[in-house]
Design a protein that fits this description.
Layout (H helix, E strand, L loop, with lengths): L38 E3 L1 H5 L2 H18 L1 E5 L5 H17 L2 H5 L4 E3 L2 E6 L13 E6 L22 H28 L16 E8 L4 H5 L5 E4 L5 E5 L6 E5 L4 E4 L7 E5 L1 H6 L9 E3 L12 E3 L2 E3 L6 E2 L13 E2 H13 L9
Parallel strand pairs: 1-2
Antiparallel strand pairs: 2-11, 3-4, 4-5, 5-6, 6-13, 6-14, 7-12, 8-11, 8-14, 9-10, 9-12, 15-16
């Protein structure tokens, strides 16, 4: 369905989204070369006093209210880990046979579609030139609610991939509460209001592999990753080695190319957060397009975002103190699966009891 726009699927949206955009990059798209997404030092919030924390929370809130994205340095994660995970992603997708990948074909577990997504089949609504693989909390040998012994072979083609990716999960999980606390503090809410929900909460670690595009693919109109909004509270995305991430600037209806410093992490708020913030923090559209240097024709690109959710039985409701609610309370499983039915088909949706 090349040439499709988000308006073709707006019936699935669970938060207000008023703009119109094409899902894949096309000739004629306008780009904003002037807007700069804020780059903020997270260290003062992690290690500073109350005044330093308040100042960072204000800065983060300003950035997220304006465009839904911010770039964080000073987060404490060793950049060498991101280099290791890049190599892991390349090895996983290039050394695992297609038959073995398809043994783990994605399907819904709880709220989230987990498993392998083949090239051009990340969703049902538009071809995109990326292979993806999603693992949620239950796919890792880490503390969690669990009904039985952990077995890596149930989720991974080789156990070594779980061990390597677990390092990334264990590095990012300690950032989840501080990021959420800073966001809530910037909204004027109790910073700790979600602490219980975010203790051993669910998440989705997605590994993306964008192979080099051949000439036919380059002409086809298929994007590397279609325009979308994340459905989560927020996403933790280490900066990629290759350009291509594009963010919608709702102020001027143009796209901007996000180029984050090596070793930094990109934070963006999703549909859960827009819902509970009563539309104060937008779930901003983004996509992966072609880098300006043409490297998509010769080089692979990887990314490994970690989407932060709450468990399926939690209720999403507007936070106190943010005015008359625009939305009714809703169970996370109903909210999540209704929203993502646009990608996976109407029968994906689950109605909460």
């Amino acid at each position: 369905m090349t040439g499709a726009s988000n308006r073709d699927f707006e019936r699935y949206d669970q938060v207000r989204k008023t703009h119109t955009y094409r899902l894949a990059e096309e000739d004629g798209d306008e780009f904003d070369e002037d807007y700069e997404i804020a780059t903020l030092d997270f260290a003062p919030y992690l290690h500073g006093n109350s005044a330093e924390k308040a100042h960072f929370a204000e800065q983060l809130s300003e950035a997220l209210r304006d465009i839904g994205f911010a770039v964080l340095t000073g987060h404490g994660v060793d950049p060498a880990l991101y280099d290791d995970i890049h190599d892991c992603v390349v090895d996983l997708f290039t050394s695992t046979s297609q038959a073995e990948k398809m043994r783990f074909r994605a399907r819904r577990h709880g709220s989230v579609s987990q498993g392998y997504f083949p090239l051009e089949e990340t969703s049902d609504i538009h071809p995109d030139l990326v292979e993806g693989w999603v693992w949620c909390r239950r796919a890792f040998d880490i503390p969690q609610p669990r009904t039985g012994p952990f077995r890596a072979k149930d989720f991974w083609p080789r156990a070594e991939y779980e061990r390597q990716c677990r390092r990334l999960v264990e590095a990012h999980e300690p950032l989840i509460k501080p990021i959420a606390q800073a966001i809530f503090q910037g909204l004027g809410c109790d910073p700790d209001i979600y602490d219980d929900r975010l203790t051993q909460t669910n998440f989705g670690l997605r590994l993306n592999y964008y192979p080099p595009m051949n000439e036919e693919q380059d002409r086809s109109g298929a994007g590397r990753l279609l325009g979308h909004e994340d459905v989560d509270l927020f996403t933790i995305l280490p900066a990629s080695r290759r350009d291509g991430l594009q963010v919608w600037n709702h102020h001027n209806q143009k796209w901007l190319r996000l180029k984050a410093p090596p070793g930094s992490i990109i934070i963006n708020t999703g549909d859960y957060m827009q819902r509970i913030s009563n539309d104060r923090l937008p779930s901003t559209t983004h996509r992966v397009g072609k880098p300006t240097d043409g490297s998509h024709r010769s080089s692979a690109r990887t990314s490994f975002p970690m989407a932060v959710y709450v468990w399926e039985d939690e209720t999403l409701e507007v936070l106190p103190g943010l005015g008359e609610p625009h939305y009714e309370p809703i169970k996370a499983i109903a909210f999540h699966t209704r929203s993502t039915s646009k990608f996976y088909g109407d029968d994906y949706a689950v109605e909460a009891d």
